[in-house]
Amino acid sequence: MAHVVVVGGGIGGVVAASELRRRLGRGDRVTLVDKGGRHVFQPDFLWVMMSWREPERIQRDLARLSRRGIEVVTAEVRRLDSGAHRLETSAGPLAYDRLILAPGAELASDALEGFSTAARNLYTLEGAMRLREDLSAFRKGRVVVLISSTPFKCPAAPYETAFLLDYHFRRRGVRDSVSIDVVTPEPQPMPVAGAEVGKALAGMLRERGIGYRPLSKPARVDSAARDVVLGTGERIPFDLLVGVPPHRAPAFVREAGLTDGSGWIPVDPRTLKTSVEHVYALGDVTAIKLANGMFLPKAGVFAHRQAEAVARTLAAELTPRADGGTFDGIGHCWVETGFGKAAFGSGDFFAAPAPRVSLRNPSRPLRWGKVLFERRWLRRWF
């Protein structure tokens, strides 16, 4: 009998635990550890911001997975002792035979001075709710969508935010009184997707009158003066700051020595194996270098596909009758643009010499595809 422990109740963790439970034998144990005990469907944060979803609708109790035979432990992982095959958690020690790390990225708002006090954190449910309140009263001024640093998860999200803010202010009839600017250290929107995708998105921003400031790395946020201060010393004023905070690997991962110079866990691109025996990692916590030297974006679609691949690999290892599998680097994402439309990017990120990604123009059918995806995903896994 084997005991597989999965850390993290996000998309990758839920899929990995569920697929393992389905594929392993009855005598094998699958345990999911998550510090919050609830799955929050993060792709819906923008819809919460726009008042299109309520918080309770995008959350699920992870305890519901116990109906599938998954043991769910609500606890914070404090230490990983890979030599002893043991996790130290706030609920006590937990031994494992195989370990899958899917804790996601830690949002390090404190890593950029002034961010916590001045910005609405785009990547938390609380931040989305506070931004919803801001938008109900905002009629005039300067809005800055700030990307603090790279890498960050869901590369389309800040650009979707800018498009949806533009839509919101146009619908309210106050767009002429509001300026919107995207400030980012990236050389172009979604650079890993390639020059053509970046050019298309930059053009869409320009058509909507949204300012775009690439290669602009913030040094700090002056909350008193309400300025974003760039590394060059230039100041960008704002009345409303919508921010993507710096990201980093969780402390227990860093302290276990699993990260490299990138700050993330290097894994085999196909098998998701780490440098430590019997330990796998997937999703936002990983660093997968592509053929062109860039890194695979951090996105839920990749976490999902990686989770399926790891589940197949472990099932083949632990159950002789099962078939193995590998991660193929195929991914996609929607780019919501407002007015009931969304663009859609998809492609092969493992292609050489560079990812082959295309972007379909915004349309209503594509936006409905995103709505149906949300419904089907939550129904399928919960």
Could you describe the 3D structure shown?
The two termini are 26 Å apart. By secondary structure, the chain is an alpha/beta fold. The protein has two domains: 3-105 and 249-318, 3-Layer(bba) Sandwich (FAD/NAD(P)-binding domain); 108-246, FAD/NAD(P)-binding domain, CATH 3.50.50. The mean pLDDT is 97. It has helices at 11-23, 45-49, 115-118, 125-137, 157-172, 195-207, 251-255, 300-318, 364-381, and strands spanning 3-7, 29-34, 38-40, 59-61, 71-74, 77-81, 86-89, 92-95, 98-101, 106-107, 119-121, 141-147, 178-183, 211-213, 218-222, 227-230, 235-237, 240-244, 247-248, 265-266, 279-281, 286-287, 330-338, 341-348, 356-363. The strands form eight sheets. Strands 5-2-1-9-21 form a five-stranded parallel β-sheet, with helices on one face. A five-stranded parallel β-sheet has the order 11-18-12-13-14. The protein has a three-stranded antiparallel β-sheet with strand order 6-7-8. Strand 6 and strand 7 form a beta hairpin.
